[in-house]
Amino acid sequence: VAPATPVCEVPSSAMTGTVVQMSCKETEGSPPSEYQWYKNGVALLEKTGTGSARAANITYTMNKKSGTLLFNTVTKNDTGEYFCEAFNGIGLSQKCSVKRMQV
């Protein structure tokens, strides 16, 4: 079954230095969907090893299985427009509407 349009939860504003968790979920896809987050239209990288992530200055953890995007400490650089995409290899991937977070 192709994925349904996912529901994204993105805070509209956050204080610098706080923990922010965004979530993305859809329940109709079978097999279960994986999720990809985008910021300003660019796919966010999945954090694999600490070395490469630190070099790229990645301040978040993205879980493709659960759809969560977790920022341990948000900075002004994290301000932007976020959306996520659900895909399971069947039918078209589905995106939620873009939501802006202001830090």
Automatic annotation (TrEMBL):
Gene Ontology terms describing biological process: leukocyte cell-cell adhesion
Topology in the membrane?
Single-pass type I membrane protein
User: Under what name is this protein listed?
Assistant: JAM2 protein
One Pfam short name: Ig_3
Q: Which keywords accompany this UniProt record?
A: Cell junction, Cell membrane, Disulfide bond, Immunoglobulin domain, Membrane, Signal, Tight junction, Transmembrane, Transmembrane helix
The UniProt entry's GO CC annotations, sorted and at most eight, read: bicellular tight junction; cell surface; plasma membrane; protein complex involved in cell adhesion
Domain Ig-like, by residue range, is: 3-103
Query: What family classification does the UniProt entry report for this protein?
Result: Belongs to the immunoglobulin superfamily.
Q: Cytoplasm: is it a keyword of this entry?
A: no
Q: Which InterPro entries match?
A: Ig-like_dom (IPR007110), Ig-like_dom_sf (IPR036179), Ig-like_fold (IPR013783), Ig_sub (IPR003599), Ig_sub2 (IPR003598), JAM2 (IPR042625)
Keyword Repeat tagged: no
Task: Give the originating organism.
Answer: Cisticola juncidis
Q: Where in the cell is it found?
A: Cell junction, Tight junction; Cell membrane
